Amino acid sequence: MSKIQLALLFLCLVLSPAHAQGPASDKQSFSDRLVLHTDSVEPRRFVAVHGRQAVIMGYPESGLEIWGYPFQILSNYQVDFRLAGSVTESEGRLLLRRIDYRPDSVTRIYIGPDYIVKEKLFVPLNEAAAVLSYEVEGPRSVDITIHFLPVLNLMWPAAVGGQNKHWSAEASGYVISEPLHGMTAIVGSPEIVAHDDTANSTLRADGTLAFSLRPQAVAGAPARATVYVALNAAGTKKPAATQQELASHLQEMETEAATHYADLESQSLEIHTPDEDVNRALAWSEVALDQAWVCNPQLGCGIVAGYGPSRDARRPQYAWFFAGDGMVATNALISAGEYSRAREELAFIAKYQEPKTGMIWHELSQSAGYVDWSKYPYMYVHVDLSFDYLNTVAHYVGVSGDTTFATDHWSSIAAAYRYCQSLIRNTDHLPHIPADKEGGDEQHRPGDDLSLSASWAEAASSFADLAKFTDHTQLADEAIKENQLARQAIAAHYWDTEKNFWINSHTQSGEPILNRRRGPMQLITQKVFSAQQDDALLYELASSDFQADWGMRGVAASSEDFDPYSYATGSISALGTTEAAVTFWQEHRPDIAFSVWSSILPWNMLDSLGHIHEVLAGTYYHEQMESVPEQTWSSAGLLDAASRGLLGLDIQGATNSIHLSPHLPAEWNRISVKNIRLPHSTLALTISQSMNDIDLEISNEGAATKVLFEPQIPMGAHLRGAEFQGHAIAATTEVFAEDEHANVPLNVPAGTSHCRLHLEGGLSLILNRSALRIGDASTEMKLTSLHLQDMTLSMEADIRPNGNNTFRIKTPWKITSNQGASVRSLPDDQYEIMFAPVSTRLNPVGYAHTHLELTFARK
Fold it and tell me: What is the 3-state secondary structure (H, E, C) of 725-747?
């Protein structure tokens, strides 16, 4: 048999289906069940492996960088391969064919002419170290050459000098040191057979080093080699001892990491639906939140904003602390029932509050412990964060019931509120941004903006709640008055009657800025504007002017400011999209909400698998140039929206009760949720639905609790009755503009309880979800409104010529007439509906507005 035949046989054996991952089973570990694979790796496939004190991350093209916080140990880590008996090396990045992502590790798979190399990237959970192991299979031995740039320097904007590097035979690796703080790092391996010298030479001016590994095979197993990278503080272990300790405890540390993620699954909110893409995305969102928790030796532990490759001067995007990002993540932690971590993050934010003014800080580099951070213009910049702090603390206390936190941090809460009050003008009762500060809009730098004013109205209400929790009754009463004045002022100050849309902000001179931004959609749920104004806003925000198949634009395509490739004036934000979905759910537009929320699901597989980018371009499906591949608040937003919107879960910690208003898509027959944590109970539930029934099964581990069960039911359905534990109970329905809900109060004891609703008739929509590919334009219909009255369904939508303008209706009724559509009967009480083509003028993104009417009759 020839060498080529041997090589082909070898590849067939290694890559045969027998080696592929089988179906999930209960015996699989959490990491195995969440493993994500990609064969698309070059050049835009980011990887990151995270610990509390270290990270490995990078793209194939630019190489990996390794951090032991707050120091970058090395960068530009690349691998090459050389077959025994050969002279030429093969570049690893050109042979990289597959990447497997797990919560606790990443494996990159390189395929050569007759060999396969598996590179496993691992970071211990609680060590400033990284382990990169190599496994080689093939008929000939393969040497692996590692190239890297030694750095050992602080994260932006700090820096140290005088670094030195030398070869240590004792450690079998390079030792890097810096003299100012006495930090050292080791980059080594027992399998090194050759290495560059470190002589001071003009012939290697770029500072890169290289060494060769010769993987060793033992007892018929694949040949293996391991590289160890670690950071040591002054006066601690010698480099050789550090490497030996990592090697001797590696299996133990891998087990610790795997166990940690398994515990995360068992203790946090777990949502399981019939859609495995949804299940995976939600589980990975919780993983991403956990991976954002970083412990800095000088600053303490907190949530970093994300992970992306370093830009100028060791500035990893965004592996440092931002209070705003941390509060978004905190809201998701609250939704996930991770109250201890949420409490820790809020305490971390309070720790660095400006002591004189009470202002909440903006950003804190991980190198801030080595410099006078107050001299840099990054700490106390954004006025909006102090408002957000009050809202987040109130949310945490209200859900968790942890009033002790409010009492212990009352001075911080009161100081933040005083700072907010200092920005309020008596002339209009609204906050104004000082000339030397910023709000949420960093580009226009307005004098006031709608988002900040909305945050003030909410913050006054939040402070009133916190004041009540802590027995500051007079302050609570005063804050309620502030809230009422703010609401009235917003309604008068931020509405453009001519354009029938909100005004986003005003210049320092008071001129309105009308740029059709998405705006703070929580104002709609707060009922600050009139019902007619809210309807107008929701209609516009659901349109193709804002909505693409992959999310919601921050600025309308029709705006003069719109630039689809701009970060701030046209991109699509995952967080902004999921926040909008929550509003659509809460405003009883569930079909629009689910379409908007699920548009983010493809992002989960776009770059770093399991993680979600910061922003995408506004007119074609791809990453925006500045976007960070693992943005913490993007994952947080997806999870938080699933809890508060899709499930409609609202926990009242003070009364140990919940409001459950689920919006199950018609194509789902069930959903199960575990680990709903109340102060004195832990609930698990399963909701099953058919055209005729909705079943709720609740398991309650703890004290009896009240559950207000308000599930969405088909539009026009008749509620024939309800049962709880086999006995008839009272139940009512409530009809809204675009959906209907049952209303069933339940007293749920410890143990397992059952509730059943009996339904008759009604209809539900099933909207399409795109299978997106890079570079696609938006093609799916955008539903803007629907209304059912007297058995006639009226719908309005934006459609694209030659786009996917079909949807399904599930109903036991029959369609007797239609206008503006074609109708095709399907099995299982379904119809396929297609909007009729339109010849009206197209908007800037190629859509036209249309409507249809369908009349039904009972069979």
Answer: CCEEECCEEEECCCCEEEEEEEE
**CB 114, CB 140: distance < 8 Å:** yes
Could you tell me the two tokens for 171?
Answer: 């450690």
The three-state DSSP-derived secondary structure of 517-568 is ECCCCHHHHCCCCCHHHHHHHHHHHCCCCCEECCEEECECCCCCCCCCCCCC
**Alpha carbons 318 and 312: distance in angstroms, whole number:** 13
Please name the amino acid found at residue 450.
L
> What are the C-alpha distances in Å from 321 to residues 292, 345, 352, 374, 573?
10, 11, 11, 15, 20
> Percent of the chain beyond pLDDT 90?
86
Q: What is the DSSP letter of 498?
A: T
Phi, psi values for residue 234, rounded to 5°: -60, 135
The DSSP 8-state label assigned to residue 780 in this structure reads B
User: Residues for the chain: how many in total?
Assistant: 859
- Contact call for residues 648 and 672 (beta carbons, < 8 A): no
Distance CA 842, CA 798 (A): 10
Tens of pLDDT, residues 555-596: 999 999 999 999 999 999 999 999 999 999 999 999 999 999
Cα 677 from Cα 672, distance rounded (Å)? 15
Tokens of 823: 């109708």
The percent helix, strand, coil of the chain (3-state, each to 5) is 30, 35, 40
Q: What CA–CA distance (Å, rounded) separates 713 from 691? A: 9
> In the predicted model, is pLDDT for residue 194 greater than 50?
yes
The pLDDT of residue 40 is 67
Longest dimension (CA), the chain: 91
* Residue type (1 letter), 374: S
| β-pair type (321-322, 363-364) | antiparallel
Mean pLDDT of 691-702: 97
One-letter amino acid for residue 456 of the chain: W
**Which residue bears the tokens 């001179």?**
509
Are the CB atoms for 104 and 173 separated by under 8 Å? no
pLDDT given at position 370: 96
Question: Is beta strand 693-702 parallel, antiparallel or unpaired with respect to 129-137?
Answer: unpaired
- For the chain, the first-to-last Cα distance in angstroms comes to 72
Distance CA 282, CA 638 (A): 7
Confidence (pLDDT) at 28 = 62
Q: Which of 808, 797, 806 is nearest to 847 (CA)?
A: 797
Residue found by looking up tokens 């960068």 in the block: 75
The C-alpha angle 200, 203, 205, rounded to 5 degrees, equals: 75
Q: 3-state SS of 316-343?
A: ECCCCEEHHHHHHHHHHHHHCCCHHHHH
Rounded to whole angstroms, what are the CA distances from 630 to 124, 291, 467, 605? Answer: 19, 10, 37, 12
SS3 of residue 804 by DSSP: strand
Please report where in the chains the tokens 């290697």 appear, as a residue: 204
With 0-12 / 13-18 / 19 or more C-beta atoms within 10 angstroms meaning exposed / middle / buried, residue 294 is buried
Which residues of 201-296 form beta strands (DSSP E)? 209-213, 223-232, 270-272, 293-296
Q: What does the CA dihedral 396, 399, 402, 403 come to, rounded to 10 degrees?
A: 90
- Residue closest to 544 by CA, chosen among 838, 789, 855: 838
Using CA atoms in the order 583, 504, 359, 577, what is the torsion angle rounded to 10 degrees? 30
Question: What is the pTM for the complete model shown?
Answer: 0.94
SS3 category, 200: coil
Q: Is residue 588 within 8 Å of 739, Cβ to Cβ?
A: yes
Which token pair is 219?
């007892």
CB atoms under 10 Å from CB of 13, counted, come to 11
Tell me the Ramachandran region of residue 741: left when phi exceeds 0, alpha when psi lies from -120 to 50, beta otherwise.
Answer: beta
Tokens describing residue 85: 């008996």
Exposure b/e, 298-316, CB count within 10 A at least 16 = b: ebebbbbbbbbbbeeebbb
Structure-block tokens of residue 598: 């699920």
Question: Using CA atoms, how far apart are residues 387 and 385, in angstroms rounded to an integer?
Answer: 5
